[in-house]
Each structure stands twice: as C-alpha cells, then as structure tokens.
Design a protein that fits this description.
This protein is 49% helix and 13% strand. The chain is of the alpha+beta class and 698 residues long. Bound molecules: adenosine-5'-diphosphate (ADP) and magnesium ion.
Length: 698
C-alpha cells in the first residue's frame, strides 16, 4: 500500500470517480439528485449503473448487492452477479439503471413486526444516492432503503432519511425568517465515537456465553480491574496497535474517516472515532466500521466485542453520538455566532434542542434501549437512564439572565452591547466537560452519550432530528405570523427556558441524589429498562409528532415497538438458556470434580492416620457442596422461569415478566456460580476466567 492519500476511498464510487467516469451532463444530473434529491431519469440511471459496474469490475468485483439495514440491527445483503448470457455462449457483465435503483429481496425472513400480515411478504430496496456505493470483497454494495410493497419502512435508513428531511423543512423556515436566503438545505452531521473490547479468539471460543450472547454471563472479578486507571489513554500494546493499523487501512479504503484511536477505561477496551459527516452517511459508515472491526480482528486472531456489557465489574461500551446541524453553505447552526443576529439564531436553535430533548425524553431513551444497553444505563459508568442536558456554566448563566430579564455579566468576559439588545453576546466556551451527562453541549455540537456500542446510530438520530424538527415547527409557526419579529423571538426563547429548564443539569449524573431530584422534584422520566420505556413509543404525543412530520406511519410505529420488545425478550431468553447450559454441563461438573478430589484427599489422609486433621479440606468441601446445591436449585428455577415466560403470548407482558423474574434469577445463579469459582482450584474451572480474558492481548 502506498501513502494514505493514494488509497483513501479507493473502494468507493465517490465524487472523484463519478466526475472521471461520467459525462459532464450525467454528472450534473446525478449531483442534483445527490444534493437536492431531484428525481433521477432512467436513462441517466442506466449510464450511472454502467459506469459503476465498469469501475467495480475493474476493481475485481463480480457481484453487486443492495446493501440495507433491516430491523435486525445489522446490515443485510443479497449478492447477484453481474453475469448475463451473451448470444455467442459467453457472458457479459451487465448492470442496468433499473437494477441500480430498485431491488426486490424477499422480505419475509426479516422482522416486520406485523407489517407483513397486512402487506405483501415481498419488499423492495431503493437506492440511496446520498451514500456512495462501495466495494466489499468482490461485491459492489449499493446503499439502499428497504420497504414493504405498501411503502412501509422495514429498515432504519428510511425513517432516518425522513427525519433529516423533516428537520430540513422546518429549519429552512426559520433560516428564511433570519434572512439566510442563500441557504438551499440544512443537514445534520454526526461523528460517532465507537468503543469496543479486544480479546484473543482462542479464549473467546472456550466461552459459550461469549459465542452465543456476546457477553460473559459468569465470571468472578479479576484481582485487577480498572481501579488503577492505568489503561485509559495508556500505551497501546503492539498486537492492538497492529490491529488498529490494519483496521484504519481497511476503513480508509472505504472512505471512512477513522481519525482517533485510544485505549479506554477498562482493560482490553479501546475507542475509535471518525471525522463527522452527514448523518445517513455516518450511519452507513458506522455499520461498516462495526463489521470491519470484527473482520479485521479475525485476521489477527482476535475477537472484537461490541456488546454493551461484555464484562461485569468493568466499564461497558457505548457510542457517543456527536451531533450538529449545518447549512449547505457551511454554517454550523449550533455554533455561537459573531453578530447579534447570528447569536439570536444560535440561541433559537439551542432552545429548539432543549425543548425537543425535554418534550421527547422518552423517545431519546427508547431509541437506545436494548437488553444489552440496559446493563450500562443506570449503572455507575454510563450516563443514567434519566435524560438531561449539560450546557456548561457560561451558557447556563446566559440562559438564566435571559429568563430573568437581567443583563448578563459574563464570568470572564465583559458584557457586550448588542443590536438586539435583549440577547447577550458571548464567547464560545468549550472548556467545561462533564462526562456524566447523557446529552452534553460541547461548544458547537451536542454529544448524546446514551447509545450502546452495538446500537445502530440511526434510531437515536431519527428521534433527535424529528423532535428538533417539531420544536422548530412550533417556533416557525409563531414567528411567521409575528407582528414584531424581535419581541416574539425574545419571548419565545424566554418561554422555552422557563418551561424546559428542568432538563438542564450541570452536576454529576451518576449521583443517586440527582436521580431522586430528577424524578421527584423535576418530574423527569426514569426508565431503567427496555420494557419500561419501549411502550412509550406508542404514547399519543409521540405518535402525533412522528406521524405529523412523516417520519413514521402509525403502523410502522406499532411494528417497531413490537420488534424491539421481541428482540429484548429473545436476547434475554438466549442468555438464560446459555446460563442453564453452562451451569449444568460445565460449572457443576467442574465443582463436583474438585469436590471429589477433596473427598479423596480427606479419605487418603484419614487412611494414613486416623487422627489427622482435615479441617481445611472438609470445610471447603462443605462450602462447595452447599454452593453446588444452590447452583443446581438456581439453575432449575431459571429454567422453570424461562418455560413459564415462553407461554406468554403478549410481547409487552412477556418483556415485563422477563424484567421482573428472569433477570433476578439470572443474577442469583451468577452470584453462586461466581462464588464457587473463587473457591475452586483453577485447573478445574471449565472456561477462561476474567483475568485471562481481560489481559489476554499483549
Ligand atoms: P471531543 O474530543 O471534544 O469530544 P473531538 O473533536 O474529538 O471532540 O470530536 C469527537 C467527535 O465529534 C469526532 O467524531 C468529531 O468528528 C465529531 N464532531 C466534531 N465536530 C462536529 C460537528 N460539528 N458535528 C458533528 N460531529 C462533530
Ligand atoms: Mg467525545
């Protein structure tokens, strides 16, 4: 490989390739489709498809696929070869505009949450020209949206694109009012920071829980965890460094701007951050990144764990969704401006986000809800399950001053005299950092930190975009009819601060006192688990907002709620079954093996001398016998619980039973099994310990 700039994006049909391989006319027309969503002529599509195919074939591709993101959370692809029979008995490589624009995979094995019952089994995929096609292996991948024949979204990209459009529509109304006539469209950008664990493949394969569920279901704490804080930003071990170098190369070839990498808090934990880009492209890239992370790990004899909580007792993995809104002219609308007018505009967009996050806390919470992420949120590491916004001291002080009609006396800067004199001007403040806040303003963007490491970022962003679009709609409705623009603007900003300041919190989000205050004094919602929050997707206010902005239809919302809860239930049940299997077939036999050695020792000692003390052996034998009884009982109870839950026919009820009964039974079984681990000779333990796993990569 040459230098990075030589191979960056070499597997992407990007602007450079388009320009080089298409006529000026076709290129312009395609650009219009990409930038403004203009409809693409079939004749143009044919030319684009042919150019794409020639380029792909020249890069070794033999197949193409419509690459999409069904509700399984991972990506899907069905490969078709370019091969087409030629009259002379040979083949030609063929790819038509029609094949580029639309595909028809069988939708029936993807989750549809009941949409299939009402609509046709078949679905179709539709090209998303805003995300470049790329080559993976020998396949040209065309990013697409996935819908049923009734037009109902069966994927994550469709509602995401709709939410971006909704935000664009409303933001444009606001920008017009501020006189930004040169702006043609507004887009949201995201830079997702991805956390992950690396362990050796050899040890991974010895643990059924990791293989079946992606996380350890048993395991006593290692003598050393993350207490020394010596891993965070620490020196990267050679094997990890080699992995990261290889990973970067693969990502760069795909045009993914992997930028920073470092060790995270827990041993064996790392992070990768890309340079931010348009939300739907960032979403595609993040899905690809997760896939490539795992592929590259396999090449290095490693396994990349993307589960939110692979190990108890050390930090889990999240994904920080850095989000901002920008115009096509390059103005970041969440960046404080230089002029009074820009500042007023900034404050309005800021208020739109504050209002959105407060009004739709439940949607943000449920957009990141999975069985895996439930282990993080609410524990002492990730942001809590309560949603709140961190603004930092200076911005908070400014908002208070506005709310109370006082002049703002900056702590470090002097007050400025302004054109719109009620709105203070202030300097950008990026110094405050609060790692415990679920939703933090970081100078020119918001960082939504509740996402789990394996989550698609599509869900969080569609809710965020839609909720902010709704705030902006309300503002635009009022401002467009205002007799006095500036007074109305000022009153609206003031009212938003007054009505929504309960969501603003600069303190420690991990503190129990905060959770109490949030819930009891401020009336914020606290949904610790997926079954707690997911049904709120169908709350009237949420359905009304999401359907009015055409992000979802009502039928789609019902189907999504069903799928997410089903997914929760299946995930936990697989974990429970894995625990039963491991307890019966591995843990109990192992402990029994050690017990029988102890019994043998006692017998041998006693045979040697009748009066010999066997205090240690018999004490331990007694202890382990009690533990084996308890493990056996807990295993039976867990198994019985699973049987009972499977009889449930209603998904909401089933998820609640799992939350209330199965999780507790799993915890009980784990507690006694982990206790037995600490008492059992190492050579008997049937799978690698936490110590071995967490320190396996050197
Ligand atoms: P920090 O260290 O303050 O968290 P970084 O500059 O390292 O910030 O950025 C973290 C992530 O945020 C990166 O993925 C980066 O590309 C992304 N980011 C930076 N600016 C923006 C923006 N305006 N919109 C969206 N994401 C952004
Ligand atoms: Mg960050």
């Amino acid at each position: 490989m040459g230098t990075v700039s030589d191979y960056f994006g070499c597997l992407v049909f990007d602007d450079r390739v388009m320009k080089a391989s298409l006529s000026a006319e076709v290129y312009q027309s395609l650009r219009k489709t990409i930038d403004q969503g203009a409809k693409l002529d079939l004749s143009v599509a044919n030319v684009v498809a042919a150019a794409m195919k020639d380029w792909a074939v020249a890069h070794g591709a033999t197949h193409y696929t419509h690459w999409f993101q069904p509700l399984t959370g991972i990506t899907a692809e069905k490969h078709d070869s370019f091969i087409s029979p030629a009259p002379d008995g040979g083949v030609i490589m063929d790819f038509s505009g029609k094949e580029l624009i639309k595909g028809e995979p069988d939708a029936s094995s993807f989750p549809s949450g009941g949409l299939r019952a009402t609509f046709e089994a078949r679905g179709y995929t539709a090209w998303d020209p805003t995300s470049y096609a790329f080559i993976k292996g020998q396949t040209l991948c065309v990013p697409t949206a996935f819908c049923s024949y009734g037009g109902e979204a069966l994927d994550k990209k469709t509602p995401l694109l709709r939410s971006m459009e909704a935000l664009n529509r409303q933001a444009m109304r606001i920008l017009k009012l501020f006189g930004n006539d040169d702006v043609k469209c507004v887009r949201t950008s995201v830079g997702p920071e991805q956390e992950y664990f690396l362990i050796t493949r050899e040890l991974y394969e010895k643990r059924k829980d990791l293989v079946y569920t992606g996380r350890t279901l048993f395991g006593a704490k290692a003598p050393k965890g993350q207490e020394m804080d010596d891993h965070y930003f620490g020196v990267i071990k050679p094997r990890v460094a080699a992995y990261m170098a290889d990973l970067n190369e693969e990502l760069w070839k795909l045009g993914i701007l992997a930028k920073t990498e470092h060790n995270e808090v827990a041993p064996a934990q790392h992070e990768l951050a890309p340079i931010y880009t348009t939300t739907n492209v960032a979403t595609d890239h993040n899905q690809l990144t997760m896939e490539i992370m795992q592929k590259v790990a396999a090449k290095h004899g490693l396994v990349c764990l993307l589960h939110e909580k692979p190990f108890a007792g050390v930090n889990g993995s999240g994904k920080h969704n850095n989000w901002s809104i920008a115009t096509d002219t390059g103005v970041n609308l969440l960046s404080p401006g230089e002029t009074p007018y820009e500042n007023a505009q900034f404050l309005l967009f800021l208020c739109a986000v504050i209002k959105a996050v407060d009004d739709y806390q439940d949607l943000l919470r449920l957009s990141v809800a999975t069985a895996g992420n439930d282990h993080r949120l609410g524990a002492n590491e990730a942001p809590p399950a309560v949603v709140s916004i961190f603004l930092g001291d200076e911005l908070s002080a400014i908002l208070s001053a506005i709310e109370e009609d006082r002049p703002y006396e900056g702590t470090r800067k002097t007050t400025m005299k302004l054109g719109v004199d009620v709105l203070p001007r202030f300097a950008r403040d990026t110094t405050d950092r609060n790692r415990t806040s679920p939703f933090a303003f970081t100078g020119n963007k918001f960082e939504f930190r509740m996402l789990g490491s394996s989550n698609s970022i599509a869900c969080a962003n569609m809710m965020l975009n839609a909720a902010v679009a709704e705030s902006l709609r309300i503002y635009a409705d009022r401002l467009e009819n205002a007799r006095d623009f500036e007074t109305t603007l000022h009153e609206m900003i003031k009212k938003t601060i007054k009505d929504h300041k309960r969501i603003l919190f600069n303190g420690n989000g991990y503190d129990d006192a905060w959770i109490r205050e949030a819930v009891e004094v401020r009336g914020l919602s606290n949904y610790p688990t997926t079954p707690d929050c997911m049904p709120h997707l169908l709350d009237e206010k949420n359905v009304k907002m999401l359907t009015s902005h055409k992000v979802f239809s009502e039928a789609e919302l019902h189907s999504r709620c069903e799928i997410m809860l089903e997914n929760y239930c299946k995930t936990v049940i697989i974990e429970a079954n894995t625990m039963v299997d491991m307890a019966r077939k591995q843990i109990l036999p192992a402990v029994e093996g050690y017990c029988s050695e102890l019994a043998g020792t006692i017998a041998a000692k006693r045979a040697a001398a009748a009066d010999i003390s066997c205090g240690y052996e018999s004490g331990l034998l007694r202890k382990l016998s009690v533990l084996t009884d308890q493990i056996a009982i807990c295993t039976d109870e867990l198994e019985a619980g699973v049987m009972e839950v499977s009889a449930c026919t209603d998904t909401i009820r089933e998820s609640e039973k799992i939350r209330d009964e199965i999780l507790g039974k799993m915890a009980s079984l784990r507690a006694v099994a982990d206790e037995a681990e600490t008492q059992t000779a190492e050579k008997y333990w049937p799978f690698p310990t936490y110590g071995a796993l967490l320190y396996s990569v050197r």
